[in-house]
Design a protein that fits this description.
alpha/beta; Alkaline Phosphatase, subunit A; 16 strands; 30% helix; binds 2-acetamido-2-deoxy-beta-D-glucopyranose
């Protein structure tokens, strides 16, 4: 008790000292998209019109090497809020409905809880839009307007509602004169074709003012002529995909304008000059080799870090390799709270990048740990990605790669499936067979083979590189307490007589 109190006194004192020397960050705003990739002008997408996100990118630092450690919604959100890989925090898959994943009951520290407990309630926390993590006690925000109180479309896609709740949150923060942490979980540009196809594949027509679609007063939909669009190289070169992109981009116009509305509220309340703003997405877009995969389009994240401090970097890009797990430490750092020093959570704040671009090293690495998406999708994968190489370990490599419900019904997947069943030609760089059947290990030279087509695992030239990457991946799994550490060919024993000396005991697969 005594020790805790002393810590608090020291904390308050250090906050005071910091503000006295003119540090201007008082609040943190985290803007999170749902299944968005890099479909933004700032990332050189020529078609998707995102003037608000582009303007935010100019105000801040735009990341070219930001990655999520997991390519699924709830696990990704849990990683942001705990700084931990999904295998450490226990959020192995989706939170809602039959999937029923929650973080582990013990010793999980999440941003809203830490911010409240470590400051005696001095920081006001809020979440508006999609939450999708649990259990509730482990992620208790002071202000919550989420799918737990509203329909997900009204709170996650209706940007007028998002604006109004943001206004209410900021009003309360101002009245209480408390620093705040506000997270906005946009539900755009997630698919919805498997649930409400009448609104379009991405719910892009919902609220557009067209007949039967209702209106979102603050949204001016941007329509795209699919005939004009270029298809990214990783997707089938078909008109079906072009139409999907037109729908996705239209939905992104709602996300983008929602970001604009929130930033305008921030400004109207006078918080622009003391709020750190982050924009990112939980995982990549819902297309093949993207979401639910550790391939590049599944993990590459849009990331903007915009600081109110004049001396910080603005309108610049960074090549630093960062993980979305680092958001946790970044938020704590912004509030000048000590970063919990345990090896399971990332302790890497991104704030130093606002001052100075670090020298790139060949060894710079980010890690991936994906176990489920839906409860039936038992396909755990572990990954290390350096600037040049990516190593993926598919732990259940003998089963077919699983497909989730909303991607399954998508026109893109249906076309791939149909072409496969009818043995028709499809202009796609992968085959469904190769997509389903993956080897235990995949090693790619990401620099020269950006499409991840040439598995180098058996190439003797890469023997040493493979050995080093395997060791680094293993070390990371050890230091983050991965229960899958010994999978699939051994059993991890770590309790009782093995407690002080955990071991992987072979299952004898090699002799079968
Ligand atoms: C969006 O929210 C506003 C404000 O609550 C409401 O007037 C409007 O009807 C909503 N739009 C849809 C499509 O439900
Ligand atoms: C964090 O922990 C590591 C290893 O336990 C230790 O070497 C390091 O000094 C600690 N850092 C801080 C800031 O406490
Ligand atoms: C951060 O964590 C790493 C890995 O656990 C550790 O080696 C390092 O000392 C930590 N740094 C700080 C500043 O706590
Ligand atoms: C599936 O392929 C068959 C044969 O090529 C074609 O006639 C049919 O229209 C296709 N269906 C869909 C949904 O694409």
């Amino acid at each position: 008790m005594m020790a805790l109190q002393i810590v608090r006194v020291v904390l308050l004192f250090s906050l005071f000292v910091a503000s006295a020397v003119g540090d201007e960050i008082k609040n943190v705003l985290l803007l999170l998209a749902d299944d968005a990739g890099l479909e933004m002008g700032a990332y050189l997408n020529k078609f998707s019109q995102t003037s608000n996100l582009d303007a935010l990118a100019r105000r801040g630092l735009l990341f070219n090497n930001a990655f999520t450690s997991v390519s699924s919604c709830s696990p990704s959100r849990a990683q942001l809020l705990t700084g931990q890989a999904s295998h450490s925090n226990g959020m192995y898959g989706l939170h809602h409905s039959v999937h029923n994943f929650n973080v582990l009951p013990n010793s999980i520290q999440s941003l809203p809880n830490v911010l409240r407990e470590e400051t005696n309630g001095r920081i006001f926390s809020g979440i508006i839009g999609k939450k999708h993590v649990g259990a509730a006690d482990h992620f208790r925000f002071d202000f919550e307007e989420t799918e737990e109180q509203h329909s997900i479309n009204q709170i996650g896609r209706n940007i007028t509602n998002i604006k109004l709740y943001t206004r209410e949150f900021l009003r309360q923060a101002k009245t209480q004169s408390k620093p705040f942490f506000l997270m906005i979980g946009f539900h755009d540009p997630h698919r919805c074709g498997h649930i409400t196809p009448q609104y379009g594949e991405f719910c892009e027509r919902w609220g557009s003012g067209e007949e039967g679609m209702g209106t979102i007063p603050d949204w001016k939909p941007i329509y795209y002529d699919w005939r004009n669009l270029d298809i990214p190289a990783y997707l089938p070169m078909t008109d079906v995909v072009r139409k999907e992109l037109a729908a996705q981009y239209m939905t992104i116009s709602r996300l983008d304008q929602g970001v604009g509305l929130v930033l305008k509220e921030l400004k109207n309340f006078g918080f622009t000059s003391n709020t750190l703003i982050m924009y990112t997405s939980d995982n990549g877009p819902p297309f093949p080799a993207a979401r639910t995969n550790l391939y590049e389009h599944g993990i590459k994240s849009p990331f903007i870090l915009a600081s109110p401090n004049e001396e910080d970097r603005h309108h610049e890009t960074t090549g630093a390799m960062v993980s979305l797990m680092d958001v946790y430490a970044t938020v704590l750092d912004a509030f000048q709270l000590p970063i919990i020093n345990n090896s399971v959570a990332s302790n890497k704040s991104l704030l130093p990048l606002l001052r100075k671009e670090p020298k790139p090293h060949e060894d710079d690495a980010i890690y991936g740990s994906h176990s489920y998406h839906e409860i039936t999708m038992d396909y755990p994968m572990r990954m290390i990605r350096t600037r040049k190489y990516k190593l993926i370990h598919n732990l259940n490599y003998w089963s077919y790669f699983p497909i989730d419900q909303d991607f399954y019904t998508s026109p893109t997947f249906q076309q791939i499936l149909n072409a496969t069943l009818h043995r028709d030609h499809l202009p796609w760089y992968r085959s469904l067979e190769g997509y389903y059947e993956r080897p235990e290990w995949e090693l790619y030279n990401i620099k020269s083979d950006t499409m991840e087509r040439h598995n180098l695992i058996k190439d003797p030239e890469y023997k040493n590189i493979l050995k080093v990457l395997k060791q680094r991946l293993h070390d990371w799994q050890v230091s983050t307490n991965d229960p899958w550490l010994c999978a699939p060919h051994a059993v991890l024993q770590a309790q009782g007589i093995f407690k002080d000396n955990p071991v992987c005991l072979t299952l004898g697969h090699e002799s079968l």
